[in-house]
Design goal:
With 118 residues, the chain is an alpha+beta fold. The chain has helices spanning 25-54, 58-67; strands at residues 11-12, 18-19, 71-78, 89-97, 100-108, 114-117. The strands form 2 sheets. A 4-stranded antiparallel sheet has the order 3-4-5-6. The N and C termini lie far apart (57 Å).
């Protein structure tokens, strides 16, 4: 294994049992666990940065807003607190309806339609 590279070679004791001659097997394991935690931290950071942008549905949101009579539609990013637990996509928007500029969020689910909230 790579985590054991650089350690003393293993041997056997007088009774023939496999024995490691290293002084810091625990240190090698700590380095291995530390590198695994580093990988997990990088993955968590990537999810935190990319995840919210991936949970928007600008195309579906635009169609839902057009169906409701909105014009001059600008879709934005993710809005975490505005939708229910059954909604996977939360897309912020700004649009014009009946001459008034409004903003809100469009909540969409995978197995359901979209709800316009403003």
């Amino acid at each position: 294994m790579d985590c054991w590279r650089g350690l003393d070679t293993p041997g056997s004791d007088e009774e023939g049992f496999y024995v490691s001659k290293t002084k810091s097997a625990w240190g090698a394991m700590a380095m291995y666990i530390g590198s695994s935690l580093g990988i997990a931290a990088v993955i968590l950071l990537a999810v935190a940065l990319v995840g919210p942008r991936a949970c928007t549905a600008p195309g579906r949101s635009r169609r839902a807003l057009e169906d409701e009579g909105f014009e001059d539609i600008e879709t934005g990013g993710y809005d975490i607190w505005s939708c229910g637990s059954g909604d996977q996509f939360h897309t912020r928007y700004k649009a014009t309806r009946s001459g008034r500029r409004v903003s809100g969020v469009v909540c969409c689910g995978i197995l359901k339609g979209c709800t316009v909230r403003h």
